[in-house]
Amino acid sequence: MRPPASSVPSLGQRLSIWLAVQSFAGLALVSAAVYVVTASNLDSRQVAELQQKSEAVQVSLSGFAADASMAEVKLMLDHFIAGHADISLTLASAPGQALYASRGVRVGSTVRRAGFEMPWKLSPSGRVQGEFALDISADRQLLRWLALTLLAAVVIGATIVSISGFWLVRRGLAPVRGLSRQLQAMAPDMSGLRLDGSTQPVELQALVEQFNLLLARVERAYMQLDGFNADVAHELRTPLTTLIGASEIALNRPRAAPELRDMIGSNLEEL
Questions:
Q1: Cα–Cα distance between 131 and 177 in angstroms, integer?
Q2: Do 130 and 80 touch, CB atoms closer than 8 A?
């Protein structure tokens, strides 16, 4: 059983919905790729920065003589950390035995840590453990803003594409509506009518041609039926006229039974 027309979405609605879904999916994938690449670049930059600082500090610590004082070490490290408010450094000879601690990053900040360990003559234990803390709050804030911007771009972009796509779909289906208006103007008694496909796109030319061929076959069948009806009426008119005339003659005056039987027999033969 064919579903009611109201429950079947139109071709324009289907195309518009699919265009909107594809636009949203495409923009979402592009935005996700931009976010992932940006996050990966920021992560690589953080790792590289911590690695560079760690190697620089290790080289500087290795350059101190065995008779150097911790005051000289702290002065060098203070100069090294100066101007980098987003980085802090701690040194310890063993867990719980601090040798140096720079001004830490802001409390509540999101930090990324990287540690190192190396032999060091100035450490009481002969080894030193260092840890860098990098404040990555600005990068996290950047990623949050980027995510919100990309989300807004996806929604706004998909909306714009959907609206323009709906307009383009309606414009693209205008030839189909034109064919529908031509069909509505046709009537069974208007012979010789055909669909005008001269202004239709290539995709509809074959449909118009096949429909015109169907109209031609229907017209021929209608003409044959009309001729058949005329032939039937002609073939029936002669015997009916004969029956009517014979019946009128028989009723003009009283007739004997044998004569009436002959008349009825003749009428049966005509029938």
A1: 74
A2: no
DSSP 83: T
How far apart CA 131 and CA 166 sit, in angstroms, is 59
10-27 pLDDT per residue, tens: 777 788 888 888 889 999
Q: How does pLDDT run across 136-183, given as a tens digit for each residue?
A: 999 999 999 999 999 999 999 988 988 888 888 888 777 777 777 777
Predicted TM-score (pTM) of the model is: 0.64
Cβ atoms of residues 54 and 90 within 8 Å:
no
For every residue of 173-210, DSSP letters joined together read: THHHHHHHHHHHT--TT-TT-----TTS-HHHHHHHHH
User: Sign (positive/negative) of CA torsion 204, 205, 211, 215?
Assistant: positive
